[in-house]
Amino acid sequence: MNTFDVIIIGGGAAGLTAALSASRAGAKALILEAAPRIGRKILASGNGRCNLANSGEIRYEGGAAFAEAVLGQCPVNEMLAFLSSLGLAVCEEAGGRIYPACGQAAAVLDVLRAALERQGVALITDAPVTLLQKEKNGFHVCTPQGDFAAPAAVAAFGGMAGGRLGHDGSPYRLLTGLGHTLRPPRPALTPLIAEKSDVKGLSGLRLPAILTLCDGGGSPAVSAQGEALFTDYGVSGVCAMQLSRRAGEMLRAGQRPVLYLDFSPMLGLAPRLYDRVPAGPPRKNVTSMRAFLRARAHTLPRDALLTGLLPRLLAQRLNGLSLDALADALCAFPVRLTGVKGFENAQVTAGGVPGEEFDPQTLQSRLVPGLFAAGELLDVDGDCGGFNLQFAFASGMLAGKNAANFQEVSP
After folding, report:
1. Strand pairing report for 183-188 and 152-155
2. E strands of 270-370, at which residues?
3. Per-residue pLDDT of the chain (411 residues; tens, 9 = 90+)
4. Edge-to-edge strand list for the sheet holding 97-100
5. Where are the alpha helices (DSSP H) in 87-142?
6. Whole-angstrom Cα distance, residue 365 to residue 165?
7. Domains of the chain listed by start with CATH number
8. Residue 108 and residue 389: Cα distance in Å, rounded?
C-alpha cells in the first residue's frame, strides 16, 4: 500500500491549499481528485476573474460563528501572504473584493500547480475515493487508482454547487460513515424562479434596482442592491442571488414570498450601490418617485411620459397606469417567487457537515482523531464578493498545517 503523511481528498481551492500547507510543514502529501483535472471551480469563479477574498467585514449566512473562528486563525492578510509567496499578484477593487492582478482566474491555478510541482506534492486525478476507513495507525483510503494510507487525512471534496463542477452528494458518505452528521445540502447564491406572468415580456432587461424579499405575510426579510437581470424564468444577477438562500427557506416552509424591485437607483432617486442593504418597506421611495413623475408630466404629454425614461420592455409593461400607480410599480414592482434554481446554477452549497463537529482552531474532527476538513463540504456559505473562496483557502491552510503536525496520542 502506498503510504503518505497526509492524504487530501479533493483538488479544489481548499484541497490544493491544504496540500501545499502540509508540504510546507514537512509532510509527504498526496492529493486524490475525482475529476480528470484539478481546480475547475477556481477557473470558473468570478466569471473567470476569480474573486478570491474580501478585505471587508466577513459575511456568512451559514455557519457564521464557525467561519469567523476559522478566519480568526487565518485572517485575510495571512491568506494573501501565502498566495503571494507562491507568486500570485493581487489587486483590490470596490467593496474590498480581491482579484488576481492580471484579472485571470487561470493565474491562481497556475501558481498553485507550479507550487505543487516545486514542493513535490503527489497528485492523482480520476481517483474518486470509495472508502475512507479509520484504522489503528491512521487511515486506509481506496480509489480505482489504488489504495493509500496515512496517519492523517483532510476531507476537501467540496459541495454540490456548480453542476458538473460539483459532486452528486456521494462523497459526504465518507464522513457520515465515520460518525459525522450531514445537514441537507441546498443551493445558495442562485437565481430566483418566479410566476411567469410576473416577468413575461421582460427577459433580457438588466436594471439597477433595490430588491426586497418579503415573507408570506408581507414583512420585509432581506434586501440587496445592484443590477437585477430579468430572465424568462425569473430574476437573476448578484443582488437576486444574495437573497436566494432566504427565499429557499421561505419556500420550504410553505410560504409564498414576494420579491419587490425598486427602480429608484435607475432614475437617480437613490444611490447606485452593489451590496446588501437594510431590509425596509418596499415603497420607501414612493413619495420622491411620485414628485419626480408629476414634474415630468408637467413638461411632457402623457403618451411620452415613459419614453426615454424606462427601457422599452418595461415601459410597455407599465404603460397606461395612473401616475400614483406608476410610482408604486416603479418603487415596488412585485414578482411572486415559486422556487430557486438548483445546484447546476448555484455558486455555493448551503448545508453540509456541521462545523461544530470540528475544532475551528485546527479543523480536526472532534469525533475522529487525525481527520481534518476544509472548504465547501462544511456547513459554511457566504455572500458573493470572495467570501466563499476566502474560507476555502483559509480553511485549507489551517487544516493542512495541522494535519502535517498530527500525532495520535495512544490511549
Report:
1. unpaired
2. 275-277, 333-340, 348-352
3. 699 999 999 999 999 999 999 999 999 999 999 999 999 999 998 888 999 999 999 999 999 999 999 999 999 999 999 999 999 999 999 889 999 999 999 999 999 999 999 999 999 999 999 999 999 999 999 999 999 999 999 999 999 999 889 999 999 999 999 999 999 999 999 999 999 999 999 999 999 999 999 998 899 999 999 999 999 999 999 999 999 999 999 999 999 999 999 999 999 999 999 999 999 999 999 999 999 999 999 999 999 999 999 999 999 999 999 999 999 999 999 999 999 999 999 999 999 999 999 999 999 999 999 999 999 999 999 999 999 999 999 999 999 999 999 987 555
4. 53-54, 97-100, 90-92
5. 105-119
6. 26
7. 2-188+343-404 (3.50.50.60), 192-340 (no CATH)
8. 12
DSSP 409: P
Among residues 30, 5, 2, the alpha carbon closest in space to that of 16 is found at: 30
Q: Summarize the chain as % helix, strand, coil (round to 5).
A: 35, 25, 40
- Cβ atoms 124, 30 nearer than 8 A: yes
Q: Report if pTM > 0.90.
A: yes
Burial-class residue 279 by CB neighbours within 10 Å (0-12, 13-18, 19+): middle
Q: State the residue for C-alpha cell 477574498.
A: 53
In this structure, what are the phi and psi dihedrals at residue 228, rounded to the nearest 5 degrees?
A: -95, 135
Distance, CA of 89 to CA of 389 (rounded, Å): 16
Residue 150 bridge partners (DSSP): 139
List the one residue out of 42, 351, 54 whose CA is nearest residue 181. Answer: 351
In the block, residue with C-alpha cell 424562479: 193
Task: Report the alpha-carbon distance of residue 189 to residue 240 in Å, rounded.
Answer: 8
- For the record, the C-alpha cell of 346 comes out as 448555484
Query: Pick from 238, 280, 236, 245: which is nearest to 64 by CA?
Result: 245
Q: Sheet holding 138-143: strands in order across? A: 2-3, 146-150, 138-143, 131-135
Q: How far is Cα 292 from Cα 264, in angstroms, rounded to an integer? A: 10
**Which of 240, 274, 264, 387 minimizes the C-alpha distance to 331?**
264
C-alpha span between 167 and 364 (Å, rounded): 23
Q: Which of 348, 83, 384, 364 is nearest to 226 (CA)?
A: 384
User: Which residue in the block uniquely carries the three cell numbers 425596509?
Assistant: 280
φ/ψ (deg, to 5) at 178: -100, 5
- Please state the length of the chain: 411
